Amino acid sequence: MVKMDPARADSLTLSCPHGLTLQGVTAVVRYRIGESAQTLRLTEMNQPDMAPGLRAIWRCEPLGDGYRLWLELTNSGEVPVYLETADVLTGPAPDMGAPPANWRVYQNGWQSWSPAFARHLEGTTYADPGTPEYRAAHQPHWEPDYDGLVSSEWFTVLFAPPAPALLLGFVTAKDQLAEIRLRADGSELTARCHLDGVLLSPGATLQTEVLWVTAGPDPLRLLEAWAETAGREMGARLHPSPAASGSPLSPPLTEGRERGGGRGWGEGSPTGWCTWYYFYGENTADDILDNLRAIADYRLPLDLILIDDGYQTAIGDWFSINPDKFPEGMEPVAEAIRAAEHRLGIWTAPFGAAATSQLFAAHPDWMVRDEKGAPVIGWVHWGVPCYALDCTHPEVLAWLEETFRRMRREWGVTFFKIDFLFAAARPGRRYDPSATRAQALRRGVEAVRAGIGDDAFLLGCGAPLGPCIGLVDGMRIGTDVDPNWHPLFRYDLSAASTENALRNSITRAPFHNRLWLNDPDCLLVRQRGPDLDLVLNEMRTLTAVIALLGGLTLNSDNLALIRPGRLKYLWQALPPTGVSARPLDLFEHEMPRLLLLPVERDWGRWWVAGVINWEDHTVETTVRLSDLGLPAGRYHVFHYWRRRYLGITDDGVLLRRHQPHETAVLLFKPVSDRPDLLTTTFHVCQGAVEVADCCWDEAHGLLRIALEKAGRQFGEVWLTVPEPWGVVEVGVDGERHPWVSPAPGLLRLGLTLEDRAELTARFGRKR
Asked: Which of 211, 341, 540, 753 is the most buried (most CB within 10 A)?
């Protein structure tokens, strides 16, 4: 319900579901006519309001269990109007039933690498480095009064348990950068669209992005609902997985499966090998060919070969190939990749031109300009300034489209990773003065998409997230992984490190298959040494989280030199399930500790939990069934990394020595009164991808299990054998096979799975 605030004639009250109320709210537009700054405050819904040179209407419509709000702005005068910001909603924060210091606030960073987590307003781990470089890369709306302000891009969720949670989120993002601002003392809550001083000509009309306001008892469900709604509104390109769970705890995205594109890549998340995190741009053509042979020798099910940064002579000169690294150019390498039946992927940073590039020398007029007319630096690449391309310039858009069309046509590229996309949204003067920064960025990505075609895979990186929805197939959602667990500067949450990459990836897990396919960055499994400082538990945590999140799974080791025993960890993350685990305690801990993947098949149901110890010391961890939201009952529990059966519980399990940076992967399987499959060790998700069928023949006491997984991999299959059943014989592909009983009521056998196998186990009742 929307009504006038009886205490204030200049504001409204917005009554949200579950008893939350926003009192004293208004809408505010800031603009300029010439050098004169103007402000228009609106207090009535769906009624026009006038100010010098501007006519505004504040719209409100129901949406689900809440409201859609937006502003329509028209230049009603005879001179240009320059629009600065539009607050679609602003007023005091609601009474959340607790002091603001006790609130949890989902803080979504601006671009892929920006910190994202459910921040605690008191005792937070967040630290603002405060450097110009940090502000340019992560705080696009920074102002001197940022102290005491929490800014979240596009959406936020406020939560103070046990009270209901409040969601404010823009569900469109094509035209303006937008943020939700909260004063940490609760005095002000604002949903703002940034109009960047754009020109609104006489008679022209502009609409802000659409804000959704709603509330509910479960903040994680609200977050998932926002992502689902934004994806639908923006036409997200989705690749639903055949492994999608039908569990009530992880409902299938039936609406999402009907929208978007992604044609040409089929279902599920891509897999592949990337040059970057071993060679860091120093790889040669021979290094790529060596790894191509290693993939074939090990029969690794990796589809994509991604050639990352370093092949070009300069940012912007994408067809000027470094002759020292690729003496015969790109074509022979591309041909070898295709001949080996892999897809070719290429990295670019399309919206930049290095100061040393031929592109900048030939077209200095293509750059975004500052107030003094100097080209704006998009970023500094290995010490070289890269200037930001003006993606509102028609010649730039034509060049982008043709560049990517050539890569598709001449090299056969079908996977494109586009990086440092925030450069297109740098502040500055552009060819089109009526275009916002968000529109400039989106036009650039649209030109890339037009060049590569609808059936190629487009992966965004270093990207302001909202404007890319509906154009990209995948999105990097965290910082770079790194050979180190902690970042060099411990409190810079945007710095490259495995810890930072995983935190962001877990925090943004609800975006997967709602906005795009999530890319948690590359999996590194090589042994610890001069080029990798991850200990075993850290590497296993990286493997477990990537596998549980179900998104893109790209390896970036030198497979030609890796110790073969390490490849078992890569095998155990392949193929990705395509379905993301849920971070159940996202709003309880700033570093979420509990991931849960429900798996449901025609022949069984189980849950895989990832229990993370972020501490630098060993802890004791209790995991209760109630923490996981599992139905009441009795469950077998299996500890994946330790290959240990933990017994049957109807309450929970205690991990007495939960080691530093260890993720305990626990399977919970309901107890059955007949012989049943407990787990397999071929994949972290333990049956979600490699078990094609499991059939029990009661009349003959026969359990048949069909296993299917590309390649050649050794693993174990565990069965439960309750009383009064006993094992008669076990076979694999029609041949008798040895087995052991590691504990009463358990059967374990090892086998090498080559693409597919059928396991049969015959049981009889004991007399």
From this structure: 211
Phi-psi sector, 120: left (phi>0), alpha (psi -120 to 50), beta: beta
Of 191, 246, 251, 243, the closest CA to residue 221 belongs to 251
Residue 493, CA atoms < 13 Å, CB-side half-sphere = 23
Side-chain-side CA neighbours of 680 within 13 Å: the count stands at: 26
Of 234, 250, 281, the residue that ends a domain is: 234
We report the CATH number of the domain holding residue 716 as: 2.60.40
On whether the CB atoms of residues 476 and 111 are closer than 8 A, the answer is no
Count CB neighbours of 120 within 10 A. Answer: 18
- With beta carbons less than 8 A apart as the criterion, state whether 70 and 208 touch: yes
Burial of 45 (0-12, 13-18, 19+ CB in 10 A): middle
pLDDT at 244 > cutoff 80: no
Tokens of 48: 């026009």
635, amino acid identity: Y
Question: Is the distance from CB of 726 to CB of 753 less than 8 angstroms?
Answer: no
- Alpha-carbon distance of 727 to 233, in angstroms, equals 55
Structure-token pair, residue 644: 């240990």
Query: Contact at 8 Å (CB) between 416 and 348?
Result: yes
Q: At what angle do helices 394-406 and 437-452 cross, to 10 degrees?
A: 30
How many helices (H) and strands (E) the chain has is answered by 12, 42
Domain membership of residue 62 (yes or no) is: yes
Query: Coil, strand, or helix at residue 452?
Result: helix
Radius of gyration of the chain (CA): 27
What average pLDDT does range 577-601 have in this prediction? Answer: 97
The alpha carbon of 167 is separated from its chain's Cα centroid by a whole number of angstroms, namely 19
HSE at residue 553, side-chain half, CA atoms within 13 A, is 30
pLDDT digits (tens, 9 = 90+) for 400-424: 999 999 999 999 999 999 999 999 9
Q: What is the DSSP letter of 580?
A: P
Whether the pLDDT of residue 127 is over 90: the answer is no
Phi, psi of 698, deg, nearest 5: -60, -40
The tokens describing 517, both together, are 């396919």
Instruction: Give the CA-trace dihedral at 541, 546, 550, 555, to 10 degrees.
Output: -140
- Residue 539, φ and ψ in degrees, nearest 5: -65, -40
- Please report the pLDDT score of residue 475 as a whole number: 98
Whether residue 566 contacts residue 527, with contact meaning beta carbons closer than 8 Å, is answered with yes
Query: Do 198 and 178 contact (CB within 8 A), yes or no?
Result: no
> Angle at CA 215, nearest 5°, toward 211 and 216?
145
Q: Does some domain include residue 580? A: no
For residues 539 and 567, the answer to whether their CB atoms sit within 8 Å is no
**Whether 201 contacts 80, CB under 8 Å:** yes
CA distances from 251 to 225, 257, 268, 691 (A): 12, 12, 16, 21
- Which SS3 state, helix, strand or coil, does residue 660 take? coil
Contact 2, 67 (CB under 8 A): yes
The kind and range of the H/E element at 147 are none
Bridge partners, 23 (sequence order): 13
Picking from 234, 258, 282, the residue at the C-terminal end of a domain is 234
The number of distinct structural domains making up the chain is 2
User: Residue 639 gets which letter from DSSP?
Assistant: E
Q: Read off φ and ψ for residue 688, nearest 5 degrees.
A: -65, -30
**In terms of DSSP H, where are the helices of 142-266?**
219-234
pLDDT tens, position by position, 369-400: 999 999 999 999 999 999 999 999 999 999 99
The tokens of 215 are what?
């509330």
Cα separation, 385 vs 359, whole angstroms: 13
What is residue 567's three-state secondary structure?
helix
On whether residue 366 sits in a domain, the answer given is no
What stretches of 151-198 show up as alpha helix (H) in DSSP? Answer: none
Q: Is the peptide bond before 270 cis (omega within 30 degrees of 0)?
A: no
Residue 734 burial (C-beta neighbours within 10 Å; 0-12, 13-18, 19+): exposed
Domain residue limits at 752 = 672-767
Q: Could you tell me the two tokens for 466?
A: 């909202």
